[in-house]
Amino acid sequence: MSIQRVVFSLAAVGLLASAVCDANSASYRISAHLSHKGSEFASPVIVVREGVPAAVEVTGKDGYRFTVTVTPADSGSVKVTTDLRTAYGVISPAMVVQLGQPASLSVSDIQMSLTAEANGS
């Protein structure tokens, strides 16, 4: 077998494995409420694939960049790792949340409340 065929075969196997992994990886819908000193400035909803960071960015006076990564935890819960960059400050909390149950936290004057749901629920 020529080297070109071996490389082509390995590439085809890699693409097939990637497609199978993508089909088997879960996706989640993250609904967030972002506030500064009690005043909500954003409520993004992001669909994110398991283990793959997803972000939403908004420009303007109350602009922000919100990045989320979700990984499985115990049964019925997920670990949500976030990075929030705003004119009010930067926070990067991570928390384990029950699917479908809201979770909230405050860091300095920034508040974040989010709900994680299996996509399609």
Quick structural gist:
The chain is an alpha+beta fold.
Describe this structure in words.
Strands 1, 2, 3, 9 and 10 form a five-stranded antiparallel β-sheet that branches. Strands 4, 5, 6, 7 and 8 form a five-stranded antiparallel β-sheet that branches. Helices cover 18% and strands 54% of the residues. It is globular and about 40 Å long. It is built from one helix and ten strands.
Secondary-structure map with pairings?
Layout: H1 3-24, E1 27-36, E2 39-42, E3 45-49, E4 54-58, E5 64-72, E6 77-86, E7 89-91, E8 94-98, E9 103-107, E10 110-118
Antiparallel strand pairs: 1-2, 1-3, 1-10, 4-5, 5-6, 6-7, 6-8, 9-10
The profile of the biggest β sheet is: 5 strands, antiparallel
- Give the structural class: alpha+beta
Rg from alpha-carbon coordinates:
19 Å
Count of extended strands: 10
Mean pLDDT rating: 84
Low-confidence stretches: 1-21
Which strand-content bin applies to the residues? over 45%
Ends: how far apart?
Answer: 49 Å
User: What is the number of helices?
Assistant: 1
Q: Characterize the overall form.
A: globular
Secondary-structure element order, N to C: HEEEEEEEEEE
- Kindly give the count of domains: 1
Helicity range:
10-25%
Describe this protein with a few key phrases:
single chain, 5-stranded antiparallel sheet, 1 helix, alpha+beta, globular, 121 residues, disordered N terminus, 54% strand
